[in-house]
Amino acid sequence: MPFNPLSCPLPSGGRLARWGLVCTAAALSACALQPPAASSLPPLPHQWSRTPAFTSPAAPNAHATAEWWQALRDPGLSTLVQAAEQASPTLARAMARLEEVRSSAAAQDVNANPSLRADAKAGRGNSQSGNSQPASSASASLSLAWELDLFGGLRHDRAAAQQRLQASRADAQGTRLSLLAQVADAAIAARACAAQAAARREDVRSRRAALQLTELRQSAGQVAALDSARSRSSLADAEINRVSIEEQCAEGEQQLVQLTGLPLAEVRRALGEPAAGAGRAVPEPPPLQPALPATVLASHPAVVSALRSADAAWEDIGSAEAARRPSLSLSALLGPSWLRAAGSWARSTSWSLAPALGGTLWDGGRGAATAGAARARYAQALASLESTLRSAIQDVENALSLAEGAAERERLAMAGSAAAAQLLGASVASHQAGRMSLFELEDARRGFNNAQLALISAQRDRARAWVALMKATGAQAATSSDTQGPT
Fold it and tell me: What is the pTM of this model?
């Protein structure tokens, strides 16, 4: 409610002028040198340039929430995510930073209120005079101090603190989203790596069988020694590929250990839990479609943080300009005191009410320079907002592009895998009927393994592209509701 100077009681006598000054100052305390911050986003694209082939138009659903990874239906991933949220020092640091900013905002709110202080003291003493007697004294006081917000400086400080609190909250949401996306991406890569390692081991087994067959045929004089050397070289390449993929799997598991804080055995146990989707090495992403750019970008944590930081910089300009104007403070004191001497008590009460008005007459341009620096910081914040928005748009477009390419490669790899499986089945039947040699059968088996490797890679890339899309959209891939997160 705005201050009404007519609501002040008007004492009579010499105090009338003093009360008038106080009431007028309180009325002016609602004034400000500039309006509140109201920064807006730069123009946004009306739609994304492409929609990934694996998505389909769908109504908003509950997948795009704070628990967006549940859409993958992978219980092992849920275990890893829960551990990461509880043990991540990065997330803990972000939450501690949020609490620090929240406390600073609360302190700014308190600064605008009057402060009330109580003091009490007691003593006993004697003077150097020979005829004096010891005396006891006691006093208590209640003091009030209040800086009136003449030009809105305190109001701008409070508003800037609240804007920074919102920016810090968005930063914490972004940190959480980035962490969980890292965990999901690493878990998908680890699952795919384990399937690829199994396929590589099967390839080694097949090539070893082919080498044994070639050496038998060489001993019978059916093939030259060059064929055996070629088989040994092929087996060595397969062994190298097996060792290489197993090294990658070990690195992926250690990454999950670092992200979650879990022991390696628990990470492997989580990865050992079967994910939904029969016949798949990695979880299958759900058929989601990104929301419109305005919906995604307006609630993206990075964009929200940049926008709120720009608003805070705007409020800082008002605070800097107000600091160049005069200031008015009000102080009041009320306190009784007691003195006991020669067996009798004396009591007195004192009070005071003192408004103080002051301002800088000349500061050598320091105030103007401070205000100029605040305006420059606001310009930087607007430029940072523009840059953040462009990066967010590019991240979404890149994720959509990756998802589209991965979906097409998965479709082709599935067709190739089906053909290779059909060829392998026919080869097994021919071998059992005596119409195909073991060498030809193992060659068909290796072709099937290679097709499986290609399919696993495509499925992995599609799932990782979905995770990248969730991260790029701020987990807004299928809903227009606000993303939940740390508060």
Answer: 0.78
